Amino acid sequence: MCAPMSKRPAPDDPFRQIGNHRLRRVLESVWKIDVDFFFRDTRPEAWEPHLEWLRDGIDPDAWTLRMPIQGFLVETPTQNILVDTCVGAHKHLPQRPEWNDQDHDTFLAALASRGLGPEDIDMVLCTPSGSPISSSISAR
Questions:
Q1: Each residue of 21-40: pLDDT tens digit?
Q2: How far apart are CA 44 and CA 64, in angstroms?
Q3: Which residues does residue 95 pair with via DSSP β-bridges, in sequence order?
Q4: What's the alpha-carbon Rg for the chain, to the nearest Å?
Q5: Is the pTM here over 0.70, yes or no?
Q6: Does some domain include residue 23?
Q7: Sorted alphabetically, which SUPFAM superfamilies does this protein's record hold (predicted)?
Q8: Cβ-contact 102, 88 below 8 angstroms
Q9: Cα 87 to chain centroid, rounded
Q10: Which of 1, 3, 24, 130 gives 20 to 30 Å between its CA and that of 75?
């Protein structure tokens, strides 16, 4: 086991402290997609009253959603736990062209910016269990 809480986060690394656990975002990318992809039957005017609180997640001029592809690092006094969407690189997903056969190390770089590498992670929880995404996961 490692001692994950020994490193103080940088000022530009926001986190939430919950008891003696720290929750930190690990951003891989931001996927921009037409609002209609998920919300086919809505019109822009229906979104207008909500644009202020949705400002980080929607671009009303382009009518696109900003969807972060991210994981969360849970640092405990004895473990580093990664809660991950398991989208990432090195997956053959022809049904998702925007994720298919990506060859990058963006997620590992984001993890490294938190002062950690794969060897520092004690457990990974993949959130889309049973999906085509998680079924393509392989050890690298």
A1: 999 988 888 888 889 888 88
A2: 11
A3: none
A4: 17
A5: no
A6: yes
A7: Metallo-hydrolase/oxidoreductase
A8: yes
A9: 9
A10: 130
In whole angstroms, what separates CA 84 from the centre of its chain?
A: 7
Domain count, the chain: 1
* Joined tokens for residue 119: 């060897």
Over residues 52-108, the pLDDT tens digits come to 998 888 888 898 998 888 889 999 999 999 998 777 777 787 877 777 787 778 888
d(CA 30, CA 27): 8
Q: Which residues pair with 33 in a beta bridge?
A: 65
Q: Which domain holds residue 90?
A: 4-30+69-136
pLDDT tens figures, 62-71: 989 988 888 8
| Tokens coding 111 | 């993890």
Q: Of how many residues is the chain composed?
A: 140
Q: Is residue 47 part of a domain?
A: no
